[in-house]
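Structure ticket #2291
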Amino acid sequence: MLNPKLHLNPKLFDTDVEQKATRDGYGEALVALGEADKRVVALTADLAESTRTEAFATKFPERFFECGVAEQNMAAIAAGLAVTGKIPFISSYATFSPGKNLETIRTTIIYNNANVKIAGHHSGIMTGPDGATHQATEDIAIMRALPDVQVVVPCDAIEAKKATMAAGTYVGPVYLRFTRDKTPLITTEDTPFDGTVQQFWVTDHPVVTIFATGYMLMYALLAAKELEGEGISVIVANVASIKPLDEATVLSLVQESGAAVTVEDHQVMGGLGGLIAEVCAKNHPVPMEFIGLQNTFGESGKPAELIEKYGMGKESIKQAVKKVIERKK
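Resolution: structure written out below.
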């Protein structure tokens, strides 16, 4: 069942569940941060509307910098602003930032531990019809490989707002990952957000732990609900903070169930799947299955169709759970 302690959306499984894009939560938080702290500034690479930076630009035009189609310059300018005491948020599509401007981010922001927040939008195959060139499916791997940077992937718009607010008060570089299309609101304003791995679906005597990140958490919860009806008990854990990872809770959950399935809209290599596998391999090896892109680019199509094509939907998650149970035997 849904964890009652987390005050999750009681209408989560309704057909008319409210939906909102995670990028909207980012835009709301950016304005709130700007109101609370005059050091907050925003930069974008000709994508103010798409990245929901537009509201900040309207309210604080003197603290908004339109860099044009020049993502490398945007990252370098932000690093300079951070050195002067500002708190810069840079926004673009994730294929361009941290994709195109990776070297500049690495050298000017991360290497110098500059207090810059990097917002990567339109991530994953959820970007849909724009196709592989605009579907960032390797950005988590890129960013988590860099030293001393936090990587956060919110599950819905409400968590996105909380994550952005938290990033604004943290001193140091942060990567925030957002999607374009609307997705169900899983959490509520009362759901705590503290960077720990949280059990969104709880049960007695679990046989598998499903670790999910981002909006894919919804598919994991749908799978868990149906599996319960089939007599298969699983835990579903929300991994919003990829880095730093709450390793203690991860290990506790895999020790409890004895098997794991990871779920993400990203390459399984280097993403959440690779991350959980690394932790388990070092501390408590268990059978694992991985839901995500399997060494392939996405293609152009409707997000829901792509989720099914690449074996990332509810039924695929259920099959992975049943497969990993067999491997336990």
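Closing remark: The longest helix spans residues 22-36.
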